[in-house]
Amino acid sequence: MIRGQNGYYNGHSMVGTLRTVMVCSPRAAGWDDPKSVAESGKLGFAHPPNCSRAQEQHETLCGILERAGAEVLYLATAPEVTLDAVYTHDASLPTDFGLIPMNPGKLNRIPEARHQLEFCRALGIPLAGEVKAPASTEAGDMVWLDGQTLLIGHGYRTNALGIAQMRELLSPHGVEVLVAPLPHGSGPSACLHLMSLISLLDDKTALVDLAWLAVETVELLKARGYKFIEIEGAERETLACNVLSLGERRLVAIEENRKTNRRLRDAGFDVHTFPGSEICINGSGGPTCLTRPLLRG
After folding, report:
1. Are strands 292-296 and 18-23 parallel, antiparallel or unpaired?
2. Which residues share a beta bridge with 296?
3. pLDDT tens digit string along 34-79?
4. What's the rounded Cα separation, in Å, for the pair 15 and 208?
5. How far apart, in whole angstroms, are the C-alpha atoms of residue 14 and residue 246?
6. What is the pTM of this model?
7. Is the peptide bond before 181 cis (omega within 30 degrees of 0)?
8. Phi and psi of 262, rounded to 5°?
9. What is the distance between the alpha carbons of residues 266 and 289, in angstroms, rounded to a whole number?
10. Number of C-beta neighbours around residue 248 at 10 A
11. What span, in angstroms and rounded, lies between the C-alpha atoms of 294 and 191?
């Protein structure tokens, strides 16, 4: 845990009580800029985003976070970032000893890492190391199984060199890095992260897209005592597996995924939902992608 200028910051949990979270609004990411919107197809958006609708959906999400007791910190506009900057989770990895900026495999996202680093430095969070080309890493491929074990997905966004550099940065701090092979899926241009297939809900429960997980990853999680809740297969394309834990068995999910959300509620979780048609489904980023936790209890 780090003592910054404005509070404490840490990083080795996916499920502790959410205390502080960094977000970037659609307006700050240029969703209201016609030139940026014109590039949305090249970035993988299903259609040119509607900024006002996306902003409203984002504000609904942030309201859920605040009512849950989290401090929500907003990134400012930066001319070098693209529409993807709204998905703050991917560009940096906070740890208990500082921030590690990523070197995203999606090239237009590389400036986001520097932007987030500058923001976090202003909060008093130190730099813990950097990932350098030709290595590529995105934090959407990184799942903390416990405080000393980080599972990293090896795919098109995070390559073998990136995983090796993360291991070099983390091993001196006693953190073990494990590898989860990712499927080809829809190909290199698709947004497929490890966290597209796994969301940890509490210390021993994972929401999974079981059909797309590698056998060795399934066996690894089961060996560590995880129980699975499977998504509704028909809701894969609407990001059903992308669920944010608020801690204390509270979750945030996209309201469109009603069957999967019902399974979560039937398992005893308190599920808070928001509409994600524009802010999430259009750009392939769910509530986890939209948030970069900086402190969990």
Report:
1. antiparallel
2. 18
3. 999 999 999 999 999 999 999 999 999 999 999 999 999 999 999 9
4. 15
5. 9
6. 0.97
7. no
8. -65, -40
9. 25
10. 14
11. 23
Amino acid at 133: A
Residue identified by tokens 């006693």 is 174
- The rounded distance, in Å, linking the Cα atoms of 226 and 259 is 22
Return all residues near 19 (Cβ < 8 A) that are at least 6 apart.
69, 70, 71, 295, 296, 297
Helix and strand tally (H, E) in the chain? Answer: 6, 16
DSSP 235-256: GGGGTTT--EEEETTEEEEETT
Structure tokens at 194: 């490890």
* Cβ–Cβ under 8 Å, residues 192 and 236: no
DSSP summary character for residue 176: E
159 contacts 182 by C-beta, under 8 angstroms? no
- pLDDT, tens digit (0-9, with 9 covering 90-100), for 73-121: 999 999 999 999 999 999 999 999 999 999 999 999 999 999 999 999 9
CA angle 5, 145, 197 (to 5 degrees): 105
Which of 149, 147, 139, 140 shows the shortest CA–CA distance to 223? 149
Which of these, 185, 192, 140, 134, lies nearest to 164 by C-alpha position? 134
In contact, 146 and 135? CB cutoff 8 Å: no
Q: What is the DSSP string of 127-162?
A: B-----TT----GGGEEEEETTEEEEEESSSS-HHH
Q: CB of 209 within 8 A of CB of 231? A: yes
